[in-house]
Write a structure and sequence with these properties.
The two termini are 21 Å apart. The protein has strands spanning 2-6, 12-15, 19-23, 41-49, 54-60, 64-71, 74-78, 85-87, 91-96, 101-107, 114-121, 131-136, 147-152, 161-163, 168-174, 179-183, 189-197, 200-202, 205-207, 212-216, 220-225, 229-237. A hairpin with a 6-residue loop joins strand 7 (74-78) and strand 8. The chain is mostly beta strands and 241 residues long. It is 0% helix and 54% strand. The protein has no helices and 22 strands. Residues 11-121 form the Pirin N-terminal domain. GO terms for molecular function: metal ion binding. Residues 150-236 form the Quercetin 2,3-dioxygenase C-terminal cupin domain.
Length: 241
Amino acid sequence: MTTIIHRANSRGFANHGWLQANHSFSFASWYNPEKVHFGALRVLNDDIIAPKMGFGTHPHDNMEIITIPLSGVLKHRDNMGDEWIPVTPGEVQVMSAGTGVQHSEINGSVDEYLSLFQIWIIPSKQNVQPRYDQKRFSVEGRKGKLQTLVSSFDDKDEESLKIHQEARLSRIDLKAKQSFNYRLKSENHGVYVMSISGRISVEEKEIDSRDAVGISKTDGFEITSKTDSELLFIEVPMIEL
């Protein structure tokens, strides 16, 4: 088993006034040659956006983009006909940029900050037809058990959102002293585990809130929660860029 720990305070940070952004991997003006990607996982941004502010219309292509609001309300508009769709905590948004898409994202509240994760995954297929989807997932569905949010179009899981990559994004909420065994889909995959909140132990390594650990070259591992914890798993093929 290979593990790499990324502490929360080692992330790139950008203060734009209206946007407080933490970058797990090299992004925009922040570059760290040791943190460019984890397999097909290219971006994991932990953003806080001020009320009524956001990202104006901008382009993407050939990337699978997943957004997970944690608090507040995100509003999304794109050139595929989606007009200021709200995305709230409990929901997950996916967008296949493919041949090219233009979109805007804003904080839909006039007085509440928006907190979200934005994740970019390198696709297995280039120049696909752009598409958008979102879905709500219950809190009860991840209490003490794995709740799959996103998987490949080839995956048989009918409850998850779909992307063009053999990836799996999932969440679990654990009570203090509770353990969970994660099993990987393939020996060629790795898993990037982000502690949304709480403290956990992974193979005798302690991970605190917003810390992350990348795990590869194994078929599974055990997690034990030291406190009540909320975890995000991003399993991806361990491709080279």
